[in-house]
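Quick one from the shared queue. A colleague (R.T.) flagged 5-formyltetrahydrofolate cyclo-ligase as missing a structural entry in our internal table.

Convert sequence to structure tokens.
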Amino acid sequence: MEHDGRTAEPDKRVLRREFLSVRNRLTADDVREAGRALAERALELPELAHGRTVAAYVSVGSEPGTLALLDALCARGVRVLLPALLPDNDLDWGEYTGPDSLARVQHGGKMALFEPSGTRLGPDAVTAADVVLLPGLAVDARGMRLGRGGGSYDRVLARLERAGVHPRLVVLLYDTEVVARVPAEAHDKPVHAVVTPSGVRRFPSP
């Protein structure tokens, strides 16, 4: 699915449907195996080797699996923060200490999410992170990320900027989701790296 930008840029909604359609054809075994490989690749990142606090998320559905990575980070003694969705689509945060620290939360008509069951630390807790692991649907050669469109992580990135902090931003994807170009708007920020089951690709800092 290459989009080289020489023609009119595809609509974000159309692209999201295309990427989700491919993901939805994956089997549970595909997702699990990708998650194991993704964890191995991510744990090779120097940023994660030296990070004391990592903001992450629990994958749902056909997203590349993150639980193996979360458990490995905890085993290293890393403080792992996970998001909890607020009614306005902003994110609160709580600590992950293992699978028993998660609760399945149904958000109205949206998909059920696994969120931290312990104390809520507030939306600003993410500003303490050395690394922020971001979900997404694709990333392009510039490091621009295509998200799901809910805006939650746009708020997170804006909050980091307002706080004057600069954690490393890393998006977790399947190999086929690293493409030539995705549409980007003025407020979109590039990530520093993408991790896929086959390896890591870094992007030049803006």
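The longest strand covers residues 79-85.
The helical segments are 12-24, 28-43, 46-50, 67-75, 152-163.
Added to the table.
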